Amino acid sequence: MLRAASEDTSVTGKDLFIASILIINSFSWHYIAYIVIESLLSVLNFTYTQYVVVWLAHYIAVIGSSAVGAVLSNRVSRVKFLCLWIIMGVVSSVLPVLLSSFIMAHVLLISILLGVSFGLGMPSCLAYFADSTQVENRGRASGITFLFTNLSAPLFVILFGMFDLKVNSLVFAGWRAFGLVVFLLKPKERIVSGVKRDSSFISILRNKSFALYFGAWLMFNLIDNFEMPILDYIFGNFQYILVAPVIGSFFTLIAGVLCDQIGRKRVVLYGFVTMGIAYAIIGIAPEALPPWYFFLTTESISWAIFFVTFILTLWGDLSEPGNREKYYVIGEAPFFFAEIVGVLSAPYAALIPKTSAFSLASFFLFLAVLPLLYAPETLPERKIELRRLRKYVEKAKKLQQEYV
After folding, report:
1. How far from 30 is each of 86, 90, 150, CA to CA, in Å?
2. Homologous superfamily in CATH for domain 13-187+203-392
3. What is the pTM of this model?
């Protein structure tokens, strides 16, 4: 049976605003990091082996530093830790400006530092967001936060296409430094009261509710990254990273509202159904171009749903105030682990015929849905019933007024 965590009633709108700004700044900054690393690699005229080494180092740095950051967050002040984390990001962002020329060692070092500068404080940042929301409005807050995060992504892509690497690095560092502005609002040192429980990573994975959602999330990421080389070939990497966030932006808000209205589990299932339809259509007509654009649209919608639910909402629901960092470390790991698998499997995945690749993906996507059938709803049933009752009362009042 799912145990509902007690919520801190002292949370204010300022807490949520600060946490949302931190997440928008951090996720959009990491999105820019992808562009910067790709730019550095293009300067080198990289080989495939160099490409793999650089990206593997980056993703491993993100995962490893996240685990370290979750442990450190229980031993230091959260506000000071987040402040130092952003300063570290500013320093790593400006490194390309300080170098007159680049060799493989430079690019590898910058890639690792950018990964650490994102991963180290992300669990604490996400936990701060979860502590700043109530369970009944966490989905809506997540949707609004990712709406602005996604809309900022194509703006930076366009901006970075106008300048050289040096100027882009300064913009990169300046945007990260903007995250320090929120500390002028004096965020609370500790949002929740009570004794902090230091759960182990193993005990979290043994949590049945967590494991069921985690399994579905891991399977989806592996499937999607397996198909990524084909999508890059069809759309081009630049078009894909520019168009997909725009399409998905507004669906993050819709997904967030639905999470608070009908529950997280149903919204996640809708995301898998949407993706399944897209895979099925591609499997039927892989040579025609319209199905591919339909796929781009539906996949962007699915990612919007999964970002809201899996990145921000679900792990906050399943964890307790004051004990959330390790939940987020494990919960976000599939995204970066699947990127590692995608980089390593790209040459082999590209050899598989498109019909076979997407038919195989549809089968594994079906398997990914199975754990969700047994997963509990993380939004308390009483919250759903209260919303239904409120709507019923409002309709009854309108009918009464019309009758009178």
Report:
1. 12, 12, 12
2. MFS general substrate transporter like domains (1.20.1250.20)
3. 0.87
